[in-house]
# Entry
Amino acid sequence: MQTTNHILAKEGILTAFAIAKRVTPDDMKKMQSQVKGKKSASSLFKSMLTKKIIEDTQQAFESNKIPGLMVKEVVEENTEKKRIVELTYFASIMAKKMAGNNISKYHSCYIINAIVNMLGLTEEDFNEFHRKFSRFKEGRPPGDDEGDEPESY
# Structure
C-alpha cells in the first residue's frame, strides 16, 4: 500500500500515512453470514475482513477517491529529486577521485571541458539547464516561466 503520496506525508505532518477504507455494517453482516457454522469462523472472518479492507483501499487508490491523495506529479517530482541525489553522488565520487590524484585546477578544467565536448553540450544546453534547475529548486512546475529573467544577447 502506498503511504508517501498523501498531502500529510508530503508536508511532513505524518511521516507514514496509511488510509483504511471503512467497512459498512452491511458488509460485516454479509461476511458473518458466510462464516456461520464453519470451523475456525473467527480466523476466517478476520481474513475476509482484512481482504475486504485491502481491496477497498486499493480500489480507492486507483480511482483517486481518497481526500488529500496526491496525483502523479508528486511521484515525478520525487523521481526527479531521487535522480538529482544519485547524480550528485556520482559527481562527488568523480571529484574525490580527481582530488585524490592531485590533479591541478588546470587539468580539472581540461577534464570537465573534455566531458562537455564528448557529450556535445552547448551553451544553450547549459542556459536551459539553469532555467529548469532554478524552477526545480524553487518548486515551480516545468514550463512555469514566471519570474525567469529574459535572455539577453
Summary: The mean pLDDT is 75.
